[in-house]
Design a protein that fits this description.
409 residues; seven-stranded mixed sheet; four-stranded antiparallel sheet; 8 helices; 14 strands; globular
Length: 409
C-alpha cells in the first residue's frame, strides 16, 4: 500500500494521493500535460512506521460533506445563550503578532456569509495591524438577525503591549468597541472609551488563544513567559481558554495539498502536543484550522474546521457560565437559609427554600445574574428566579422575598 506525492516547478506540490495497492496505475488527472513540469515524485510504503501521516485521524471531524457545514451554520444561527440570561457570548481573540487573529474572525464571518469577507484588517504578520479593541457581530447569509455571539479582536501580543492589567480590563468588559490600544499608554478608568459600569453581559466568556503553527513561542522565551503570565489572569477569573492553531497548511505540506489530512498529519499532531505541553493545556483544548488567505471563494473544509473549533469555544463559554450561575444560586441559598443580609437588612428565616433550593438562580429583567431589588410602598421586594431539579426535569420558581422595613436601603 503506497502513498504518493508529486512535485512541480519550485518544489510546488501539485498532486497528493493514496494509499494505493501495489501495482496500481498512478492517475495524474488534473496535472495538465505541458503546463506543469513534474520534477519529483515521492512514494511512501504505508507499511512503514515513519510516515508523514497517521493511519487514522486522531480526532473525528466529518470533512468533505456539505451537510456537515450546513448543520454547523444552522446551529449557530439558532444558538441562544442558556445561562445567566445574557444575550451574547463574548469571545476574546488573543495571540502574538502575525498569529492570524483577524484572519480567524474573517474566516468565521466568511463561512457564515457564504463569500470571502475582510472586515478585520490583516497584514503580512511582521507588524501590528489591529490597533484597536474591536467587538464584532456577525450577520449570517439569509438571516435577519445577527448571531448571539460577539468576537472581540485585539492587537498582536508583544513584550511592549497588553499587560496583565490591560487584559483584566478586557476580560472584565471595560473596553468599548474601537478602544485605542496604540501608543503604549496605560489603560485607566479615565481613558477615552473606558466603560466603568459593566456587568456579566460585557465580560469575556471565553479566551481564544491564536497561535501560528509555524512559530510556536519556545519555552522560557520572553513571549512564552508573557503568555503564561496572561494565562494566570484568565485562570484566576475562571475564564475558559482554548487554542486556535492557524497556518497548519504552511507547517505541513501534506495539509497544504489536502486539508482533509489535518488530523492525520504527523507534523500537526506534534505541534498540538508541543502546545499542550508548553502551555499546560489538554489536547482537546487545541483546534488546528486554516484561515482564508489567498482564496477568493469559500472552501468547504476550511469552513467545517473553523466552525468545529468555534463550537467547542462556545461549549467552553457555556460551561463557565453554568458554573457561575450555580455559584450564585448556592450563595443566595445560603443567605436565604441563614436569614443573612441581602438588601441591607435581614431576611426572615422562614423565607428559606430549604432542601428544594439545589440548583441555579437566574436574575430577573436586569440580565446581570444578580437578584433584582425593587421598592414597594410596604416592603423591599427581592425578585429572582430559582431552579431546582426533580426527576430529571428542571423547574423554575419565581420568588418575592419581602422584608417588612420599607425604609431600609
Amino acid at each position: 500500500r503506497l502513498f504518493c506525492k508529486v512535485y512541480g516547478a519550485k518544489s510546488a506540490q501539485v498532486y497528493s494521493g493514496g494509499p494505493f495497492e501495489g501495482g496500481s496505475l498512478l492517475d495524474l488527472t488534473g496535472v495538465e500535460e505541458g503546463q506543469i513540469e513534474v520534477t519529483d515524485i515521492e512514494v511512501f510504503d504505508a507499511s512503514q512506521k515513519h510516515l508523514p501521516f497517521l493511519e487514522r485521524p486522531w480526532r473525528e471531524v466529518t470533512l468533505n460533506q456539505p451537510t456537515t457545514l450546513a448543520e454547523s451554520i444552522n446551529y449557530f444561527v439558532n444558538y441562544k445563550p442558556e445561562f445567566c440570561q445574557i444575550e451574547f457570548i463574548n469571545v476574546l481573540l488573543l495571540g502574538p503578532i502575525g498569529s492570524g487573529k483577524s484572519s480567524v474572525f474573517n474566516t468565521f464571518e466568511s463561512t457564515f456569509k457564504g463569500h470571502i469577507t475582510s472586515r478585520a484588517r490583516t497584514g503580512d504578520g511582521s507588524t501590528v495591524t489591529t490597533k484597536q479593541f474591536r467587538r464584532y457581530m456577525m450577520q449570517p447569509q439569509r438571516s435577519k438577525d445577527p448571531l448571539n455571539i460577539r468576537i472581540c479582536d485585539t492587537p498582536g501580543l508583544s513584550l511592549n503591549n497588553i499587560s496583565s492589567t490591560d487584559l483584566v480590563y478586557m476580560m472584565d468588559g471595560h473596553l468599548s468597541d474601537r478602544f485605542n490600544l496604540t501608543g503604549g499608554n496605560l489603560i485607566t478608568n479615565r481613558s477615552p472609551g473606558f466603560n466603568s459600569d459593566t456587568s456579566i453581559r460585557d465580560e469575556m466568556h471565553c479566551i481564544a488563544l491564536v497561535l501560528d503553527a509555524t512559530k510556536i513561542p519556545a519555552k522560557d522565551t520572553p513571549l512564552h513567559s508573557k503568555i503564561l503570565e496572561l494565562k494566570e489572569q484568565m485562570d484566576a477569573r475562571d475564564i475558559p481558554i482554548r487554542v486556535l492553531l492557524t497556518k497548519t497548511d504552511l507547517a505541513c505540506k501534506l495539509v497544504e495539498s489536502n486539508l482533509s489530512y489535518i488530523y492525520r498529519s504527523c507534523t500537526v499532531t506534534d505541534i498540538v502536543e508541543m502546545v499542550s505541553t508548553s502551555f499546560s493545556l489538554p489536547r482537546n483544548y487545541i483546534y488546528p484550522m486554516k484561515c482564508y488567505e489567498h482564496e477568493i471563494k469559500p472552501v468547504q473544509n476550511i469552513g467545517i474546521l473553523a466552525l468545529s473549533a468555534f463550537r467547542q469555544i462556545l461549549y467552553a463559554a457555556e460551561s463557565g457560565l453554568e458554573d457561575r450561575e450555580s455559584l450564585q444560586c448556592a450563595e443566595l441559598a445560603q443567605k436565604l437559609r441563614s436569614g443573612s443580609n441581602l438588601s441591607g437588612g435581614s431576611v426572615p428565616a422562614g423565607s428559606s427554600l430549604g432542601s428544594q433550593l439545589m440548583s441555579r438562580d437566574r436574575s430577573a429583567s436586569d440580565n446581570t445574574g444578580s437578584p433584582v431589588f425593587r421598592r414597594s410602598n410596604s416592603a423591599v421586594v427581592v425578585q429572582t428566579q430559582v431552579y431546582h431539579h426533580s426527576d430529571s426535569m428542571r423547574h423554575r420558581h419565581s420568588l418575592d422575598l419581602q422584608r417588612a422595613d420599607p425604609g431600609a436601603k
